[in-house]
Structures are given as C-alpha cells and as structure tokens.
Amino acid sequence: MRRMQSMPGIGPITALAVEPFSPAMDDFRRARDFAAWLGLAIRQNSTGGKQKY
Q: Which of 14, 19, 26, 42 is least surrounded by Cβ atoms within 10 Å, i.e. has the fewest?
C-alpha cells in the first residue's frame, strides 16, 4: 500500500480501496504482473520470440 501511494495520481484512499480486493502479492511473479492485473500495463503478445505490442 505504501508503494502504491507513492505513484502519481494514487493517494491513500485509492490505495486503501484497492488493497482488500487484490490477491496476495505472493501470487504475482513481478510488479508488472500486478500492474497488468490492475489494467495499467499494456497487454503483451509474443509469437516466435518476436514481441508484438
């Protein structure tokens, strides 16, 4: 929650609102996975080793 509050545009109220609904942080391999769960990261599509965004 403290790290989310440090993000621009996210304050303590928003961070507190997201925390109870999100899965445990141990379920995510990296921070980008959590950002994708929130819908903040672009979807990653890869095919044959070539990255397509």
A: 26
